[in-house]
Amino acid sequence: MATHDEPIDDRDDATLAHLRQLFAHADPVPAGLVERMELALTVQALHAEVAELIEAELLATRGTAPPSPGEATRTESVTFQAPSLRLMVSVAPGGDDDVVRLDGWVTRAGAQVDVVTAAGTRTVTSDEHGRFAFDDVPRGRTSFVVRVGDGAGTRPVITPAVEL
After folding, report:
1. End-to-end CA distance of the chain
2. 33-52: string of b/e by CB count within 10 Å (b at 16+)?
């Protein structure tokens, strides 16, 4: 029998894996909880405004049947609104099935727009009309962060995540 001061071995790993399965079955993590916690922590860390999703046109990921409960849907276009700005993004097919092109518009010229995906964060600056674009953005859960001004006294705007 191992004591508490010995290193974790294969038997300990197996016991912990069994406990994880037991609790996953008896008391599963609610759907979306991790994403909501990440958003709350990000908002707190950034002291940011949170944009509200106000319009989205959705496409089913595969087939003609409506998605089953818990299945993700992909977004074709989405509009967010915050007290300080509005952001609209359209999604177009990319070079292959795993990537998309994003064409967007923000109500502030010269805004820095971040697209945040599992692959990382990419940043562009909107033109004088508020337009911006990203090529080859991986499909999946995506959110945006918009920064306007010089950063002094201005708060970034973050969006809830959407499925592209």
Report:
1. 51
2. eeeeeebeebeeeeebbbbe
